[in-house]
Amino acid sequence: MTLVEFLTARIAEDEAVAHRASEDPYVRSWPGALMAPALNGDPGTRTVSTPPTRVLAECEAKRVLLTKVLEQIESDESTIASEYGTPGTDWTTTADMLLHTLAIPYADHPDYLAEWAP
């Protein structure tokens, strides 16, 4: 699995949780807050977090970064490399920095690879 595939999957998971939360009548009774079952799985235990609408907007923003912005960065870096040559092997591209930074919130996911750490 590539880092882009990993991020795309995590974004889809976040989006699914936000959609489910926004359909929950208990959540709708708390405007502006996402109410989700606690990690222990007890359906009676709820935690307050980010509003579902904000989670959905963040998912869309991350998708734009993974497509349009990443594509532009890679294109620019390719142009620079063709004009000025490729930097040394220890050089980190802006695209890599973007991807590794987007992965930070998911570092505790079982599919996260240590090599993706910034």
Features:
single chain, 118 residues, mainly alpha, two-stranded antiparallel ribbon, 2 strands, 7% strand, elongated
What report would you give on this structure?
- This protein is elongated.
- Helix 1 (3-23) runs antiparallel to helix 3 (52-84), helix 1 packs parallel to helix 4 (94-103) and helix 3 (52-84) runs antiparallel to helix 4 (94-103).
- It is mostly helical and 118 residues long.
- Helix content is 58%, strand content 7%.
- The protein has one domain.
- The chain has a two-stranded antiparallel sheet with strand order 1-2.
The outline comes out as elongated
As laid out across the biggest beta sheet, the strand order is 1-2
Derived from helix and strand composition plus strand pairing, the structural class reads mainly alpha
Q: Give the distance, in angstroms, between the N- and C-terminal Cα atoms.
A: 18 Å
Q: Estimate percent helicity.
A: 55-70%
